[in-house]
Amino acid sequence: MTNPTQLPAWKALEAHQAKLKDTTLTQLFAGDAARFQNFSARFGDIVLDYSKNGVTDVTMGLLFGIANEAKLDTARARLFGGEKVNNTEGRPALHMALRAPAAHGGNALKFKIDGKDVGPLVEAELELMFDFADQIRHGAFKGATGKRIRHIVNIGIGGSDLGPALIVDALRPDIGGKLTLDFVSNVDGAHLDAVLAKADPEKTLFIIASKTFTTAETMANARSARKWLAGKLGEAAVDRHFVAVSTNIAAVQEFGIDPARMFRFWDWVGGRYSLWSAIGLSIILAVGPHKFRDLLAGAAAMDRHFLEAPLTENLPVILGVLQVWHRNFCGMGAQAVLPYAQDLWRLPAYLQQLEMESNGKSVTRAGAPVGWSTSPVIWGQAGTNGQHAFHQMLHQGSEAVPCDFILVARDRSAFPDQHHMLFANGLAQAAALAFGKSGAAVSAEMAAAGRDVATVASLTPHRTFPGNRPSTTILLPVLDAYHLGALIALYEHKVFVAATIWDINPFDQWGVELGKEMANALLAGKGGPGDSSTAGLMALYDSFTHRQ
Ligand code: F6P
Predict the structure, then answer these.
(1) For residue range 135-162, what is the model confidence (pLDDT) as tens digits?
(2) In sequence order, which residues have a C-beta less than 8 Å from that of residue 36 and are 6 or more positions away?
(3) Which residues contact residue 363 at a Cβ distance below 8 angstroms, ignoring those fewer than 6 apart?
(4) Among 163, 351, 349, which Cα is nearest to 274's?
(5) Is 199 in a helix, a strand, or coil?
(6) How many angstroms separate the CA atoms of 310 and 418, rounded?
C-alpha cells in the first residue's frame, strides 16, 4: 500500500477539515432537520447513529474515498479468503470461520485455508465442547469425589480471559443458577486467592485457557490451582478437575492434562479474536450450546454485512473511517467506550485489547515507520457510573474525546423501571456533549433564578458547556447472545478497516515481548535492564521482602 497521507482523499480531507472545523454540531443539526436519518445506518435491528460527529456528506464521501483508495475491498477479500494477512507471523486471521457454521438460514460463508474448507474442523470441535458442556450442565460429569461440578474457574489472560469474561457477564440473565463462573488472569496471587477462598474443590472445574500454553502468568496460576486441588483431594483428582483449551497439545500433556480433556483451536485464530473458538468454553458452560450458537450467528451475520454491504451502509466501515477522521484529521488521541448497560461493564477493557493490541503500531505492514497516528487510547466504563467520575472531563476538559455510547432498548433486569433512567441518561449525555450550554443561556438561567449580577458574571464561565464534542450511538434492541455477537464482530471489523487505512498489521503484537523478556531476566537474577532506577527499586524490594 502507499502512504495513506499521500492518497488524494487524505489530502482533500485535510483541506476539508480546515474549513469544517469551525462548524458546530449545533449548526449542522440546525441546517438539516433529517440529520439523524441522513447520518445513521442500520444492520437489521442494530442502529448506528453517527449524526453527532462533526461530519457532513462531503466528509463521509471523502472518508469512504480513503477506504477505497486504501483498497479496503482487496484487503477484505484477502482476509476472508484465508490469505496470510498476519504477514509478520505468516498466518491467516480467520476468526470469521469459527462462527460461519452458525449462520442463520444455511447462509454460511465458506472459509478455506490452503484450499481446504475449515468448516468441518470447526464444527467437530464445537460438537465436542457442546457435549462436554451438556455433561457438566446436566450433572453427568462429576468431580473426583462424585459431586456435581458447580463452579467453573477459567484461568487465562488477555484474549484467553477478556472475551469469555465479557460475554459471561453480558449474558448474565441467561445463566441459570446451577453454575458459578470466575475468571482468574492476574499473576498476582491475590486474584487466585480471592477465587479459591470461595471454591469447594470437590465441585470446581478449572479451565486452563491459553493459546500457546506457555504464557507465564497463566501457567503460574494453573500450577498453583493444581497444587491447591491436589492438596485438598489428592493428585489423582486433578484429572477430573482440569481441562485445557489450547493450540499446543504437547504443552498441555506436559502440564499433566490428558489430551482427551483438551479443546483445540488453531494458529489462524488470534488471541484477541478467539472468544468464538474453544476459548469460549466457559461461555458455553455458562449459557449452553444453543445461546453460544446465537452468539456465533450474530457475529456471522455481521461478517456477511461487512463483506457485502456498500461502504455507505456498512457499519464497521462507518465506525472505522470515523476513527480515522477523529484521529488523523481532528487530532483526537483518545476514544471513550460508554456502555449504558451494567452487564457490558467489561466492554471497555475488552476493546482496549482488541483495538490497542491490534492497532497500537508504529510501523507499516512493510516495516517502514508510519508518519501518521494509529490507535487512540481506548478507555471508559459503564454508564451511569462514569457520569459521576470522569464525564466532567468529557464535557468541560481542554480536549474533546469522541465517545461511543452503547445503548440497549429492552431491559432484562428484574428492575425494568430503572431502565428508563439509564436510557435517558445515555441520550442526555450524548446530547449535552454535542450541543452544550452557552454562556448566555447559563447567565439568563441564573439571572431568572434571582442570582445577583456579580455572581452571574463570576459563575457563568464555570457553568458553560462548550458542546461540539463528538459521539456515536450504537443502539441494540436487546442485549442477547445474537446482538452481542454482532456487536463484538462490528468492532473487530472496525479495527480492520482502520488498520487497512493506516497500512498496519492488526493481527500481531510484538510490543508485548520486551517486557516479558525483562521480567524473566529480573526473575532469573540476571540484573534486568541495568538502569539505576530498575536496579534501585529491585534492591529496595529485596530489602523490604528480606530476599537477600
Ligand atoms: O499479551 C500478549 C498475548 O499474547 C495476547 O495477545 C494474548 O491474548 C495473551 O497474551 C494470552 O496468550 P495465550 O492465550 O497464549 O496464553
Answers:
(1) 999 999 999 999 999 999 999 999 999 9
(2) 49, 51
(3) 369, 370, 504
(4) 163
(5) coil
(6) 38
Whether 267 and 247 have beta carbons less than 8 Å apart is answered as: yes
Cα of 494 to ligand 1 centre, how many Å? 21
The number of helices, as runs of H, and strands, as runs of E, in the chain is 24, 13
DSSP 277-296: TGGGHHHHHHH-HHHHHHHH
Cα torsion angle, 498, 501, 502, 503, sign:
positive
Distance (angstroms) between ligand 1 centre and the Cα of 237 equals 28
What confidence tens digit (pLDDT) does each residue in 45-97 have?
999 999 999 999 999 999 999 999 999 999 999 999 999 999 999 999 999 99
In 217-281, beta strands by DSSP E: 242-246, 262-264
Atom of ligand 1 nearest to the CA of 209: 14
Q: Strand order of the sheet with strand 151-155?
A: 180-184, 151-155, 204-209, 242-246, 262-264
Look-up of cell digits 452468539: 295
Which residues, other chains included, contact 514 with Cβ-Cβ below 8 Å and sequence gap of 6+? none
Residue nearest to atom 16 of ligand 1 (CA): 210
Nearest-CA neighbor of 160 among 62, 46, 324, 281? 281
Return d(Cα 518, Cα 435) in angstroms, integer. Answer: 48
> What helix, strand, coil percent values describe the chain, rounded to 5?
55, 15, 30
